[in-house]
Amino acid sequence: MYRLLSPSLGRGLLRAAGRRCRDCSARLLLGPAGGRAPEVGVPASRVAPRGRGPGLLPLLAALAWFSRPAAAEEEVEERQGAGGAAAEGAVDETEAEIIQLLKRAKLSIMKDEPEEAELILHDALRLAYQSDNRKAITYTYDLMANLAFIRGQLENAEKLFKATMSYLLGGGMQQEDNAIIEISLKLASIYAAQNRQEFALAGYEFCISTLEEKIEREKELAEDILSVEEKANTHLLLGMCLDTYARYLLFSKQPAQAQRMYEKALQISEEILGERHPQTIVLMSDLATTLDAQGRFDEACVYVQKASDLARQIEHPELHMLLSNLAAILMHRERYAQAKEIYQEALKQAELKRDEVSIQHIREELAELSRKSRPFT
């Protein structure tokens, strides 16, 4: 009857491909100098179709929580900007070339040119190994993993994420570090998409329990030891894990358990990002979906109506999907006339966005609504 909201595929994944936790940048230590790169094959020609099947939804769900610039590039640019010519001279020619390659790769991803991005990243990785730039090796592996992830090459993404994690842990990073948790979350979602349920569940539970224990341990730390921003980032990462796990549970037909995860994620998002943040609004609608799946239509309607009202106010980029969820829940309450009106509004918004998948879905829902509301003769 309805589709779960998911962050826009291209935008959400691109943000993940171009981001690393701010507090990780100073600690991207790798293994022994001159180490050989793990043998990971990334096909250059095979691009997976851009499906929105349920297997990939948990994998995509987490990727709209953060949108910070890439730390590896950001750190070099700060050094160059702060120290002028002297600082610029401190960045050797090879490192500058690696930074430019990484920028070009991300631009290719933005332009939907994954094959070109992959070739550029291989060049960046080769230079990083030649210069023994450990941070660049790790960051490039992370980008390559996310690129494989975008293309639906889950086996290669798994290998690349594991290579990234191996370098981080080999350099002394702790398992509870946010960077490790984020990679673990993506791996758990890959396992879910591959129906490796035991590994998926263990991964989700590891991420959530580790972060909850970390937050409890760090909550009394003074700001000069752990900044407010660092604490907020850890809370947001927990919200991201809860959100992703909730989607997995809902697709596994466990709506009551999914509801509990969404409630926790929504509370975090409201506290850290605010009620009017796009991610908070999506979570409201997704929580409504779990209530709707349990037949709790009145409660679902309260959440989805609020989400839709806020989405209109802020001109949410996925307003059409939020409206579609609202219409579906209204239809379940047999409020057919109102559901039709909302579906028509959603269709107009989807057409403005040129979202062909949503356009087709909404038209199918309108056809079903027409059948349901037709009087019996």
General description of the model:
The protein has 377 residues and is an all-alpha fold. It has 3 domains: 57-65 and 92-173, Tetratricopeptide repeat domain (Serine Threonine Protein Phosphatase 5, Tetratricopeptide repeat), CATH 1.25.40; 177-267; 274-376, Serine Threonine Protein Phosphatase 5, Tetratricopeptide repeat (Alpha Horseshoe). 71% of the residues lie in helices and 0% in strands. The protein contains 16 helices and no strands. Helix 5 packs antiparallel against helix 6 and helix 15 (336-353) packs antiparallel against helix 16. The protein starts with 8 loop residues before the first helix and ends with a helix. The model is unreliable at 1-64, 66-72 and 78-84 (pLDDT under 50). Binds to the mature mitochondrial complex III dimer, after the incorporation of the Rieske protein UQCRFS1. Interacts with UQCRC1 and UQCRFS1. Interacts with ZFYVE26 and CHMP4B. It is found in: Mitochondrion inner membrane. Keywords: Coiled coil, Electron transport, Membrane, Mitochondrion, Mitochondrion inner membrane, Repeat, Respiratory chain, TPR repeat, Transit peptide, Transport. Belongs to the TTC19 family. One of its GO terms (cellular component) is mitochondrial inner membrane.
Entry summary:
The chain is mainly α and 377 residues long.
- CATH C-level class of the largest domain: Mainly Alpha
Biggest beta sheet attributes:
none
Helix content: over 70%
Quaternary status: single chain
* SSE pattern: HHHHHHHHHHHHHHHH
Distance between termini?
25 Å
- The CATH homologous superfamily of the largest domain is called Tetratricopeptide repeat domain
Strand content: under 5%
Secondary structure class reads mainly alpha
Quantity of strands, as a count: 0
Say what the CATH topology of the largest domain is: Serine Threonine Protein Phosphatase 5, Tetratricopeptide repeat
**Would you identify the CATH architecture of the largest domain?**
Alpha Horseshoe
Number of helices: 16
Number of domains: 3
Stretches with pLDDT under 50, minimum 5 residues: 1-64, 66-72, 78-84
InterPro entries: TPR-like_helical_dom_sf, TPR_rpt, TTC19
Subunit structure: Binds to the mature mitochondrial complex III dimer, after the incorporation of the Rieske protein UQCRFS1. Interacts with UQCRC1 and UQCRFS1. Interacts with ZFYVE26 and CHMP4B.
Subcellular location: Mitochondrion inner membrane
Pfam families: TPR_10, TPR_12
